[in-house]
Amino acid sequence: MQQVDKDFARYLKQYGYQGLKLCGDNRDEEKVQVYLLNDYNLTTQFGITWDHFCKNNNFRIGQTIRFKLILSDITKCNVYKVNPPATSLTPYFE
Q1: Which of 16, 44, 69, 79 could make an SS bond with 4 (beta carbons 3.0 to 4.6 A apart)?
Q2: Closest of 17, 45, 32, 14 to residue 79, by C-alpha
Q3: CA atoms of 32 and 10, how far apart (whole Å)
Q4: Whole-model pTM over 0.70
Protein backbone atom coordinates (compact mmCIF):
# COMPACT_ATOMS: atom_id res chain seq x y z
CA MET A 1 0.00 0.00 0.00
CA GLN A 2 1.12 3.55 -0.67
CA GLN A 3 0.63 6.50 1.66
CA VAL A 4 -1.14 9.48 0.08
CA ASP A 5 0.12 13.09 0.19
CA LYS A 6 -1.35 15.01 3.16
CA ASP A 7 -3.32 17.59 1.13
CA PHE A 8 -4.82 15.00 -1.20
CA ALA A 9 -5.51 12.73 1.79
CA ARG A 10 -7.38 15.55 3.54
CA TYR A 11 -9.58 16.00 0.45
CA LEU A 12 -10.28 12.26 0.17
CA LYS A 13 -11.21 12.13 3.87
CA GLN A 14 -13.40 15.25 3.71
CA TYR A 15 -15.53 13.80 0.91
CA GLY A 16 -15.55 10.21 2.17
CA TYR A 17 -13.80 8.51 -0.75
CA GLN A 18 -13.52 4.75 -0.37
CA GLY A 19 -12.11 4.08 -3.83
CA LEU A 20 -11.02 5.69 -7.08
CA LYS A 21 -10.78 4.60 -10.69
CA LEU A 22 -7.35 5.79 -11.84
CA CYS A 23 -6.83 6.50 -15.56
CA GLY A 24 -3.30 6.70 -16.95
CA ASP A 25 -1.87 8.28 -20.08
CA ASN A 26 -1.67 4.85 -21.71
CA ARG A 27 -5.45 4.44 -21.19
CA ASP A 28 -4.83 1.95 -18.39
CA GLU A 29 -7.60 2.04 -15.79
CA GLU A 30 -7.26 0.57 -12.33
CA LYS A 31 -9.63 0.65 -9.37
CA VAL A 32 -7.86 1.35 -6.09
CA GLN A 33 -9.20 1.22 -2.58
CA VAL A 34 -8.71 4.28 -0.37
CA TYR A 35 -7.89 3.29 3.20
CA LEU A 36 -8.43 5.86 5.95
CA LEU A 37 -6.38 4.50 8.83
CA ASN A 38 -7.43 5.39 12.35
CA ASP A 39 -3.92 6.07 13.61
CA TYR A 40 -2.39 9.11 15.29
CA ASN A 41 -1.92 10.90 11.92
CA LEU A 42 -5.17 9.61 10.35
CA THR A 43 -3.02 8.22 7.53
CA THR A 44 -4.59 7.67 4.11
CA GLN A 45 -3.28 4.95 1.79
CA PHE A 46 -4.04 3.48 -1.62
CA GLY A 47 -4.54 -0.29 -1.84
CA ILE A 48 -2.26 -2.84 -3.43
CA THR A 49 -3.55 -2.25 -6.98
CA TRP A 50 -1.70 1.11 -6.85
CA ASP A 51 1.61 -0.73 -7.45
CA HIS A 52 0.15 -2.45 -10.53
CA PHE A 53 -1.10 0.89 -11.87
CA CYS A 54 2.33 2.51 -11.36
CA LYS A 55 4.10 -0.33 -13.14
CA ASN A 56 1.71 -0.19 -16.12
CA ASN A 57 2.25 3.58 -16.43
CA ASN A 58 6.03 3.50 -15.91
CA PHE A 59 5.86 5.65 -12.78
CA ARG A 60 9.11 5.57 -10.83
CA ILE A 61 10.05 6.44 -7.27
CA GLY A 62 10.92 10.12 -7.03
CA GLN A 63 8.80 11.21 -10.01
CA THR A 64 6.14 13.84 -9.51
CA ILE A 65 2.67 12.76 -10.57
CA ARG A 66 -0.56 14.72 -10.67
CA PHE A 67 -4.08 13.58 -9.85
CA LYS A 68 -6.92 15.31 -11.70
CA LEU A 69 -10.40 14.39 -10.50
CA ILE A 70 -13.13 14.23 -13.16
CA LEU A 71 -16.03 16.44 -12.04
CA SER A 72 -18.64 14.51 -14.02
CA ASP A 73 -17.59 11.24 -12.34
CA ILE A 74 -16.20 11.93 -8.87
CA THR A 75 -14.75 8.44 -8.52
CA LYS A 76 -12.64 8.79 -11.70
CA CYS A 77 -9.21 10.39 -11.60
CA ASN A 78 -6.65 11.02 -14.36
CA VAL A 79 -3.11 10.39 -13.18
CA TYR A 80 -0.08 11.54 -15.15
CA LYS A 81 3.60 12.36 -14.82
CA VAL A 82 4.61 15.97 -14.44
CA ASN A 83 7.61 16.90 -16.56
CA PRO A 84 10.64 17.74 -14.46
CA PRO A 85 11.72 21.40 -14.47
CA ALA A 86 14.25 22.39 -17.09
CA THR A 87 17.84 22.05 -15.94
CA SER A 88 19.07 24.75 -18.27
CA LEU A 89 17.93 28.33 -18.72
CA THR A 90 19.48 28.60 -22.18
CA PRO A 91 16.95 30.23 -24.55
CA TYR A 92 15.88 28.33 -27.64
CA PHE A 93 15.95 30.15 -30.99
CA GLU A 94 14.73 28.94 -34.38
Answers
A1: 44
A2: 32
A3: 17
A4: yes
